[in-house]
Amino acid sequence: MTQPRDVSPAELPAHVAANREAWDGFAEEYVPNAEASWALRPGDEKWGMYGIPESSVHLLDDAGLDGADAIELGCGTGYISAWMARRGARPVGLDNSPKQLETAARMQREHALEFPLLLGSADEVPLPDASFDVAISEYGAVLWADPDRWLPEAARLLRPGGRLHLLLNSTLMYLTSPDDPDLPVEERLMRPQFGMGRTHWQGETSVEFHLSHSDWIGRFRANGFEVLELQELQAPEGGTTSYTWMPYEWARRWPFEDVWKLRKTG
Ligand SMILES: C[S@@+](CC[C@H](N)C(=O)[O-])C[C@H]1O[C@@H](n2cnc3c(N)ncnc32)[C@H](O)[C@@H]1O
Protein backbone atom coordinates (compact mmCIF):
# COMPACT_ATOMS: atom_id res chain seq x y z
CA MET A 1 0.00 0.00 0.00
CA THR A 2 1.37 3.48 -0.87
CA GLN A 3 1.92 5.72 2.12
CA PRO A 4 2.97 9.30 1.31
CA ARG A 5 6.69 9.78 2.02
CA ASP A 6 7.57 12.99 3.86
CA VAL A 7 10.26 14.91 1.95
CA SER A 8 9.40 18.30 3.46
CA PRO A 9 12.23 20.74 4.19
CA ALA A 10 13.26 20.75 7.87
CA GLU A 11 11.75 24.21 8.26
CA LEU A 12 8.79 25.23 6.13
CA PRO A 13 8.82 28.81 4.78
CA ALA A 14 5.96 30.81 6.38
CA HIS A 15 3.69 30.75 3.29
CA VAL A 16 4.24 26.99 2.84
CA ALA A 17 3.33 26.35 6.50
CA ALA A 18 0.23 28.59 6.17
CA ASN A 19 -0.86 26.79 2.98
CA ARG A 20 -0.29 23.37 4.55
CA GLU A 21 -2.63 24.24 7.39
CA ALA A 22 -5.17 25.80 5.03
CA TRP A 23 -5.20 22.82 2.64
CA ASP A 24 -5.48 20.30 5.46
CA GLY A 25 -8.62 22.27 6.36
CA PHE A 26 -10.00 22.32 2.78
CA ALA A 27 -9.21 18.65 2.07
CA GLU A 28 -12.58 17.19 3.08
CA GLU A 29 -14.42 19.48 0.61
CA TYR A 30 -12.29 18.12 -2.24
CA VAL A 31 -13.17 14.45 -1.69
CA PRO A 32 -16.25 14.38 -4.02
CA ASN A 33 -14.22 15.93 -6.84
CA ALA A 34 -11.44 13.41 -6.21
CA GLU A 35 -13.88 10.50 -6.46
CA ALA A 36 -15.45 11.81 -9.69
CA SER A 37 -12.13 12.72 -11.31
CA TRP A 38 -10.31 9.47 -10.44
CA ALA A 39 -13.11 7.60 -12.25
CA LEU A 40 -12.49 9.37 -15.61
CA ARG A 41 -10.85 7.19 -18.29
CA PRO A 42 -8.35 8.28 -20.99
CA GLY A 43 -10.10 10.65 -23.40
CA ASP A 44 -12.78 11.62 -20.85
CA GLU A 45 -10.60 13.82 -18.61
CA LYS A 46 -11.99 17.26 -17.73
CA TRP A 47 -10.13 20.36 -16.60
CA GLY A 48 -10.67 23.32 -14.32
CA MET A 49 -13.70 25.04 -12.90
CA TYR A 50 -15.96 24.38 -15.92
CA GLY A 51 -14.80 20.85 -16.65
CA ILE A 52 -13.36 21.66 -20.09
CA PRO A 53 -12.69 18.42 -21.99
CA GLU A 54 -9.14 17.24 -22.62
CA SER A 55 -10.06 17.19 -26.34
CA SER A 56 -10.16 21.04 -26.22
CA VAL A 57 -7.04 21.74 -24.18
CA HIS A 58 -4.72 18.78 -24.91
CA LEU A 59 -2.83 19.21 -21.64
CA LEU A 60 -2.20 15.44 -21.57
CA ASP A 61 -2.21 14.73 -25.33
CA ASP A 62 0.57 17.29 -25.95
CA ALA A 63 2.75 16.17 -23.05
CA GLY A 64 4.09 12.99 -24.68
CA LEU A 65 3.15 10.86 -21.69
CA ASP A 66 3.61 7.33 -22.97
CA GLY A 67 6.77 6.01 -21.29
CA ALA A 68 7.50 9.39 -19.66
CA ASP A 69 8.69 10.11 -16.13
CA ALA A 70 6.22 12.70 -14.86
CA ILE A 71 5.80 14.77 -11.72
CA GLU A 72 2.68 16.59 -10.59
CA LEU A 73 3.60 19.67 -8.56
CA GLY A 74 0.78 20.07 -6.07
CA CYS A 75 -1.06 16.87 -6.92
CA GLY A 76 -3.74 17.26 -4.24
CA THR A 77 -5.91 14.18 -4.44
CA GLY A 78 -3.79 12.76 -7.24
CA TYR A 79 -6.31 12.32 -10.03
CA ILE A 80 -4.16 14.02 -12.70
CA SER A 81 -1.29 11.71 -11.80
CA ALA A 82 -3.74 8.81 -12.18
CA TRP A 83 -4.73 10.10 -15.63
CA MET A 84 -1.02 10.29 -16.57
CA ALA A 85 -0.43 6.72 -15.33
CA ARG A 86 -3.34 5.44 -17.43
CA ARG A 87 -1.73 7.12 -20.43
CA GLY A 88 1.50 5.18 -19.94
CA ALA A 89 3.53 7.59 -17.77
CA ARG A 90 5.36 6.85 -14.51
CA PRO A 91 3.99 9.66 -12.30
CA VAL A 92 5.15 10.96 -8.96
CA GLY A 93 2.62 13.06 -7.04
CA LEU A 94 4.05 15.78 -4.79
CA ASP A 95 1.84 17.80 -2.46
CA ASN A 96 2.20 19.99 0.59
CA SER A 97 -0.91 18.76 2.45
CA PRO A 98 -0.91 15.47 4.41
CA LYS A 99 -4.73 15.42 4.32
CA GLN A 100 -4.94 15.82 0.54
CA LEU A 101 -2.41 12.98 0.19
CA GLU A 102 -4.50 10.80 2.51
CA THR A 103 -7.33 11.09 -0.01
CA ALA A 104 -4.90 10.38 -2.86
CA ALA A 105 -3.65 7.24 -1.09
CA ARG A 106 -7.22 6.05 -0.45
CA MET A 107 -8.13 6.61 -4.11
CA GLN A 108 -5.05 4.63 -5.16
CA ARG A 109 -6.25 1.68 -3.10
CA GLU A 110 -9.81 1.91 -4.46
CA HIS A 111 -8.59 2.07 -8.07
CA ALA A 112 -5.71 -0.39 -7.60
CA LEU A 113 -3.41 2.18 -9.20
CA GLU A 114 -0.25 3.01 -7.26
CA PHE A 115 2.46 5.59 -7.83
CA PRO A 116 4.76 7.40 -5.36
CA LEU A 117 3.19 10.16 -3.27
CA LEU A 118 5.55 12.69 -1.71
CA LEU A 119 4.66 15.12 1.07
CA GLY A 120 6.68 18.28 0.47
CA SER A 121 6.87 21.66 -1.17
CA ALA A 122 7.41 22.22 -4.88
CA ASP A 123 9.99 24.87 -4.11
CA GLU A 124 12.38 22.37 -2.50
CA VAL A 125 12.12 18.88 -3.98
CA PRO A 126 14.83 16.42 -2.83
CA LEU A 127 15.04 14.53 -6.12
CA PRO A 128 17.97 14.50 -8.56
CA ASP A 129 18.34 16.95 -11.45
CA ALA A 130 16.87 15.88 -14.80
CA SER A 131 14.61 13.19 -13.30
CA PHE A 132 11.49 13.93 -15.37
CA ASP A 133 10.23 14.41 -18.92
CA VAL A 134 6.97 16.06 -17.89
CA ALA A 135 5.90 18.32 -15.01
CA ILE A 136 2.30 19.38 -14.62
CA SER A 137 0.45 21.63 -12.21
CA GLU A 138 -3.28 22.30 -12.22
CA TYR A 139 -4.07 24.89 -9.54
CA GLY A 140 -1.22 23.33 -7.52
CA ALA A 141 2.25 24.82 -7.06
CA VAL A 142 1.49 27.14 -9.98
CA LEU A 143 -0.98 29.02 -7.76
CA TRP A 144 0.13 28.27 -4.19
CA ALA A 145 3.95 28.24 -4.33
CA ASP A 146 6.36 31.11 -4.90
CA PRO A 147 7.20 31.22 -8.64
CA ASP A 148 10.67 32.52 -7.85
CA ARG A 149 11.29 29.24 -6.01
CA TRP A 150 9.19 26.52 -7.65
CA LEU A 151 9.94 27.47 -11.29
CA PRO A 152 13.74 27.02 -10.89
CA GLU A 153 12.99 23.69 -9.17
CA ALA A 154 10.76 22.58 -12.06
CA ALA A 155 13.51 23.55 -14.52
CA ARG A 156 16.08 21.60 -12.50
CA LEU A 157 13.90 18.50 -12.27
CA LEU A 158 13.12 18.39 -16.01
CA ARG A 159 15.31 16.91 -18.72
CA PRO A 160 16.19 19.04 -21.76
CA GLY A 161 13.13 19.16 -24.03
CA GLY A 162 10.87 18.30 -21.07
CA ARG A 163 7.36 19.72 -20.90
CA LEU A 164 5.87 21.94 -18.19
CA HIS A 165 2.07 22.23 -18.48
CA LEU A 166 0.10 24.58 -16.22
CA LEU A 167 -3.52 25.54 -15.59
CA LEU A 168 -4.60 28.29 -13.20
CA ASN A 169 -6.91 31.29 -12.74
CA SER A 170 -6.58 33.84 -15.51
CA THR A 171 -4.84 37.13 -14.92
CA LEU A 172 -8.15 38.83 -15.78
CA MET A 173 -9.95 36.87 -13.07
CA TYR A 174 -7.47 38.21 -10.52
CA LEU A 175 -7.86 41.78 -11.76
CA THR A 176 -11.67 41.69 -11.57
CA SER A 177 -12.00 39.86 -8.21
CA PRO A 178 -13.25 41.65 -5.11
CA ASP A 179 -11.14 41.27 -1.95
CA ASP A 180 -13.69 38.82 -0.55
CA PRO A 181 -12.99 35.63 -2.54
CA ASP A 182 -16.55 34.34 -2.03
CA LEU A 183 -18.04 37.25 -3.99
CA PRO A 184 -18.40 36.94 -7.79
CA VAL A 185 -15.90 38.47 -10.17
CA GLU A 186 -16.92 41.91 -11.43
CA GLU A 187 -17.13 43.37 -14.93
CA ARG A 188 -14.62 46.06 -13.97
CA LEU A 189 -11.05 46.20 -12.75
CA MET A 190 -10.84 45.86 -8.98
CA ARG A 191 -7.08 45.97 -8.41
CA PRO A 192 -3.87 47.07 -10.12
CA GLN A 193 -1.99 44.81 -12.51
CA PHE A 194 1.37 46.34 -11.66
CA GLY A 195 2.73 44.80 -8.47
CA MET A 196 0.92 41.48 -8.83
CA GLY A 197 2.44 38.55 -6.92
CA ARG A 198 1.86 37.30 -3.39
CA THR A 199 -1.87 37.52 -2.64
CA HIS A 200 -3.87 37.30 0.60
CA TRP A 201 -7.63 37.20 0.04
CA GLN A 202 -9.82 38.79 2.69
CA GLY A 203 -10.56 36.38 5.57
CA GLU A 204 -8.11 33.71 4.33
CA THR A 205 -4.87 32.63 6.03
CA SER A 206 -3.56 31.00 2.83
CA VAL A 207 -1.20 32.66 0.34
CA GLU A 208 -1.60 32.58 -3.45
CA PHE A 209 0.67 33.88 -6.21
CA HIS A 210 -0.84 35.63 -9.24
CA LEU A 211 1.21 37.13 -12.05
CA SER A 212 0.53 39.09 -15.24
CA HIS A 213 1.24 37.35 -18.55
CA SER A 214 4.39 39.41 -19.13
CA ASP A 215 5.69 38.56 -15.65
CA TRP A 216 5.06 34.86 -16.30
CA ILE A 217 6.82 35.00 -19.66
CA GLY A 218 9.82 36.79 -18.12
CA ARG A 219 10.15 34.12 -15.44
CA PHE A 220 9.64 31.24 -17.88
CA ARG A 221 12.42 32.57 -20.10
CA ALA A 222 14.74 33.31 -17.16
CA ASN A 223 14.39 29.65 -16.11
CA GLY A 224 15.13 28.26 -19.58
CA PHE A 225 11.56 27.60 -20.75
CA GLU A 226 10.24 28.30 -24.23
CA VAL A 227 6.53 29.19 -24.39
CA LEU A 228 4.78 26.85 -26.82
CA GLU A 229 1.22 27.94 -26.18
CA LEU A 230 -0.99 30.13 -23.99
CA GLN A 231 -4.67 29.24 -24.09
CA GLU A 232 -7.15 31.62 -22.50
CA LEU A 233 -10.12 29.43 -21.62
CA GLN A 234 -13.79 30.19 -22.25
CA ALA A 235 -16.58 28.30 -20.45
CA PRO A 236 -18.16 25.78 -22.82
CA GLU A 237 -21.68 26.56 -24.06
CA GLY A 238 -24.16 25.43 -21.38
CA GLY A 239 -21.27 24.75 -18.96
CA THR A 240 -21.84 24.66 -15.22
CA THR A 241 -19.60 25.08 -12.21
CA SER A 242 -19.80 24.74 -8.45
CA TYR A 243 -17.60 27.85 -8.14
CA THR A 244 -20.33 30.49 -7.66
CA TRP A 245 -17.81 33.35 -7.76
CA MET A 246 -17.11 32.60 -11.44
CA PRO A 247 -20.52 33.08 -13.11
CA TYR A 248 -21.24 31.50 -16.49
CA GLU A 249 -22.04 34.82 -18.21
CA TRP A 250 -18.64 36.19 -17.19
CA ALA A 251 -16.75 33.04 -18.15
CA ARG A 252 -18.43 33.07 -21.60
CA ARG A 253 -17.23 36.61 -22.26
CA TRP A 254 -13.74 36.70 -20.76
CA PRO A 255 -10.97 34.17 -20.17
CA PHE A 256 -11.41 32.70 -16.70
CA GLU A 257 -8.45 30.30 -16.75
CA ASP A 258 -5.04 30.29 -18.42
CA VAL A 259 -3.27 27.21 -19.77
CA TRP A 260 0.49 27.42 -20.43
CA LYS A 261 2.48 24.82 -22.33
CA LEU A 262 6.25 25.21 -22.04
CA ARG A 263 9.32 23.30 -23.11
CA LYS A 264 12.64 23.29 -21.30
CA THR A 265 15.30 24.36 -23.75
CA GLY A 266 18.89 23.11 -23.68
C1 LIG B 1 -6.65 23.10 -5.78
S1 LIG B 1 -5.55 21.82 -5.23
C2 LIG B 1 -5.04 21.31 -6.82
C3 LIG B 1 -4.55 19.91 -6.88
C4 LIG B 1 -5.27 18.96 -7.80
N1 LIG B 1 -5.38 19.46 -9.15
C5 LIG B 1 -6.62 18.65 -7.18
O1 LIG B 1 -7.61 19.32 -7.52
O2 LIG B 1 -6.68 17.76 -6.32
C6 LIG B 1 -4.11 22.72 -4.67
C7 LIG B 1 -3.03 21.83 -4.05
O3 LIG B 1 -1.78 22.52 -4.04
C8 LIG B 1 -1.09 22.07 -2.90
N2 LIG B 1 0.03 22.96 -2.58
C9 LIG B 1 -0.02 24.18 -2.01
N3 LIG B 1 1.22 24.68 -1.85
C10 LIG B 1 2.08 23.75 -2.32
C11 LIG B 1 3.49 23.66 -2.42
N4 LIG B 1 4.29 24.66 -2.00
N5 LIG B 1 4.04 22.56 -2.96
C12 LIG B 1 3.26 21.54 -3.38
N6 LIG B 1 1.90 21.55 -3.30
C13 LIG B 1 1.32 22.65 -2.80
C14 LIG B 1 -2.16 22.02 -1.84
O4 LIG B 1 -1.78 21.25 -0.71
C15 LIG B 1 -3.34 21.46 -2.60
O5 LIG B 1 -3.46 20.07 -2.47
Radius of gyration: 17 Å
Number of alpha- plus pi-helical segments = 10
Extract low-pLDDT stretches.
none
Please state the overall shape, judged from the principal axes of the Cα atoms: globular
> Main β-sheet: number of strands, strand sense, barrel status?
8 strands, mixed
Order the strands across the largest sheet as they lie in space: 1-6-5-4-7-8-12-11
Beta-strand segment tally: 12
Mean pLDDT: 97
Overview of the structural elements:
With 266 residues, the protein is of the alpha/beta class. Helices cover 31% and strands 23% of the residues. The protein is built from ten helices and twelve strands. It has helices at residues 14-26, 31-38, 54-57, 79-86, 98-111, 141-144, 147-157, 171-175, 213-222, 248-253, and strands at residues 5-6, 46-47, 52-53, 69-73, 90-95, 117-119, 132-138, 158-169, 198-199, 208-209, 225-233, 257-264. A hairpin with an 8-residue loop joins strand 9 (198-199) and strand 10. The longest helix has 14 residues, at 98-111. The protein starts with a strand and ends with a strand. The relative contact order is 0.16. The structure holds S-adenosylmethionine. S-adenosylmethionine binds at residues 16, 19, 23, 30, 73-74, 76-77, 80, 94-97, 100, 121-123, 138-141, 144-145.
Write the layout of secondary structure elements.
Elements: E1 5-6, H1 14-26, H2 31-38, E2 46-47, E3 52-53, H3 54-57, E4 69-73, H4 79-86, E5 90-95, H5 98-111, E6 117-119, E7 132-138, H6 141-144, H7 147-157, E8 158-169, H8 171-175, E9 198-199, E10 208-209, H9 213-222, E11 225-233, H10 248-253, E12 257-264
Parallel strand pairs: 1-6, 4-5, 4-7, 5-6, 7-8
Antiparallel strand pairs: 2-3, 8-12, 9-10, 11-12
The structure holds S-adenosylmethionine.
S-adenosylmethionine binds at residues 16, 19, 23, 30, 73-74, 76-77, 80, 94-97, 100, 121-123, 138-141, 144-145.
